[in-house]
Specification:
globular; 5-stranded mixed sheet; 7 strands
Length: 316
């Protein structure tokens, strides 16, 4: 059957296979998740100008697919797995198989006005891998430190201290590799310098922001806050009005912004004043810090859009 125009392709990505569903003709295909399988997929898709591919990010398993589709100039949309699951529930698709998920993703793409974003570069993929490794090492260090605090035997204490030193060595190596990679890329290096010019944002936080939100500086302020999960969600129905709260977004980015926000409440005068006003008005410290985190991400987005470093009045 001849492929119809404006096709939407849903792809369920597995470690070994890709299951594909096309709308509106409901054609299906299953290929291996490797170069040979992707060659078959591109041949099946044909001219990419009239189609859009929708998939969920799956860590290392979608990397080759994304790279191949980008090289073929195929429009891609990566959807949040939570959004995809809730869409499936909304249309009554409670079963979860590879074929069901591929069909659901195609229908989601055909139904909603999803925004396609440029794919990540190979450098950002490499930096993301380093970032994930760093997060794992930090979790190990926290666990080891906790065990050391409660250890009583000299042998166990010695072994735990040794392992902590090893973790610290690995963290230093990862941090150096991330910084070296960023400095080797002119555009990323310039963005990095802008971020680290903001009081409170150090090198580690700046790396995390570049990796976790590569679109920072290319979106509106409200989008930046929402993507970080720092935009308050209003809860209101009729005369009832609940407390606004944050939810969703990129949890890794929020974790990376917590310490910079704390530092900013001391060393970034405009943000310190904002924090003190919130506390004086009766806001809980946690809520006030969240507000400062939101201010930081909005500020970073604005400075990157303007391609300029922070100045004392840039937080106003």
């Amino acid at each position: 059957m001849k492929r119809q125009m404006n096709s939407t392709i849903g792809i369920d990505i597995g470690k070994d296979t890709l299951v594909i569903h096309r709308l509106p003709d409901k054609a299906t295909l299953e290929v291996t998740n490797d170069k040979a399988g992707l060659t078959t997929l591109l041949r099946w898709l044909g001219n990419g100008a009239a189609l859009r591919v929708v998939f969920e990010p799956t860590g290392p398993y979608h990397r080759l697919l994304e790279k191949t589709l980008a090289a073929a100039d195929v429009t891609m949309v990566k959807v949040n797995p939570r959004q995809a699951r809730r869409f499936a529930e909304a249309i009554g698709k409670l079963a979860k198989t590879d074929r069901v998920d591929a069909a659901m993703l195609a229908r989601l793409g055909a139904t909603l006005d999803l925004e396609a974003r440029p794919p990540k570069s190979e450098l950002l993929h490499d930096l993301r891998e380093l970032q994930v490794a760093r997060q794992g090492q930090m979790k190990d260090r926290i666990a080891l430190t906790h065990r050391l605090r409660h250890a009583t035997l000299a042998l166990i204490k010695r072994q735990l201290r040794l392992r902590i030193r090893q973790v610290d060595t690995h963290l230093a190596e990862i941090d150096a590799a991330m910084l070296e990679a960023i400095r080797a890329d002119e555009a990323l290096s310039q963005r990095f310098d802008i971020l680290t010019s903001i009081p409170g944002i150090g090198q580690i936080a700046a790396c995390a922001m570049l990796i976790e939100m590569p679109e920072l500086g290319q979106i509106e302020a409200r989008q930046a806050a929402a993507l970080a999960g720092l935009a308050p969600v209003t809860r209101q129905s009729g005369k009832w009005k609940g407390h606004a709260h944050i939810q969703g977004g990129r949890a890794g980015l929020r974790r990376s912004l917590y310490m910079p926000a704390l530092v900013a409440t001391r060393y970034n005068a405009p943000l310190r004043e904002k924090y003190q006003k919130l506390i004086a008005s009766g806001k809980a410290a946690k809520i006030a810090i969240t507000a400062i985190m939101r201010k930081l991400i909005v500020l970073a987005n604005a400075l990157l859009r303007q391609n300029r470093k922070w100045t004392p009045n840039a937080s106003c």
